[in-house]
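Re: that backbone. Tokens:
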């Protein structure tokens, strides 16, 4: 009779042990997700989540600028935003950084570029929508399987986002807005995979 009782308890003990292990796995997964959210608050795809025919673009307007001269520098607030960009992308893999030749775009990207050891590549702002499409097509062709950051202007970033999102993101950026950041993912085979608009740094009107 004793043997029967003992053998009857063994399956129950095993079941309880498995239940605890499952609960611990869930807890570990939650901790892992929280760490990833802290290290990558913008949710930029990881290298393992980007196929060899896909390109992730991170686009933003330059940070706050001085209101003097034809090629102004960043203000103190703009420099803080540039540092915030570096912090936000600190744990994100970045392959290339593109800016226009203006001080305000270069200075927005310099802290990030220096922290990543990347040489900034300059591009000429597109004057027409057709030129924007050509520029984006070149970016995608040259950066398959990579993550790139593109710093532009209030009148050029929306056009680039429109092309990359296949017209699903039709946005405007006012002269006083500096906190928009866009993340897109494009596939050479399937076109636009996703496009999202987010905010970073101090809020602006």
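Recovered sequence:
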């Amino acid at each position: 009779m004793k043997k029967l009782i003992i053998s009857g308890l063994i399956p129950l003990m095993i079941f309880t042990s498995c239940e605890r292990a499952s609960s611990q796995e869930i807890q570990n997964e939650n901790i892992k997700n929280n760490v990833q959210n802290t290290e990558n608050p913008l949710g930029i795809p990881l290298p393992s989540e980007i196929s060899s025919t896909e390109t992730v673009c991170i686009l933003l307007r330059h940070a706050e600028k001085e209101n003097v001269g034809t090629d102004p520098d960043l203000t103190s607030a703009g420099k803080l935003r540039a540092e915030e960009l570096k912090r936000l992308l600190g744990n994100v893999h970045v392959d290339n950084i593109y800016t226009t030749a203006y001080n305000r775009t270069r200075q927005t990207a310099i802290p990030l570029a220096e922290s990543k050891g990347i040489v900034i590549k300059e591009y000429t702002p597109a004057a027409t929508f057709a030129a924007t499409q050509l520029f984006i097509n070149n970016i995608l062709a040259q950066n398959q399987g990579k993550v790139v950051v593109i710093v532009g202007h209030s009148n050029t970033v929306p056009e680039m986002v429109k092309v990359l999102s296949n017209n699903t993101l039709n946005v405007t950026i006012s002269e006083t807005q500096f906190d928009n950041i866009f993340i897109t993912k494009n596939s050479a085979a399937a076109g636009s995979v996703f496009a999202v608009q987010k905010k970073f740094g101090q809020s602006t009107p």
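Confidence is low (pLDDT under 50) at residues 1-36. The two ends are 79 Å apart (CA to CA).
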